Amino acid sequence: MLYKPGHSTAGKTGYIMEHRYLMEQHLGRLLTAQEVVHHKNGKKDDNTIKNLVLCDKAQHDSRPKERKPRVIKCPHCGENLMVPWNARYAEGRRPSKHIRQRHV
Predict the structure, then answer these.
(1) Which residue of 34, 41, 89, 92 has the fewest C-beta atoms within 10 A of its own C-beta?
(2) Closest CA to 38 of 17, 55, 15
(3) In contact, 80 and 72? CB cutoff 8 Å
């Protein structure tokens, strides 16, 4: 986030998204509300111009999403466990397969 209170897209606090600002500077014009700046490598903190690509919302939404597995720590043994990206576990709950195999 960049503090640019006079910018046309700045919010109430005066901040704008850094990657959008950098793309505007690169193109020499303001971005429209329908334009999305995509991070090619998926790293949101890499705002180098070589990592940014401009596309419209439909193009951006149609891009395949990278689904990385999450890592959680077993409360019994401390082992790091890879779980599917969409797995939802309540606080204090673990994948039952790991528990059955190792802690019964």
Answers:
(1) 92
(2) 55
(3) yes
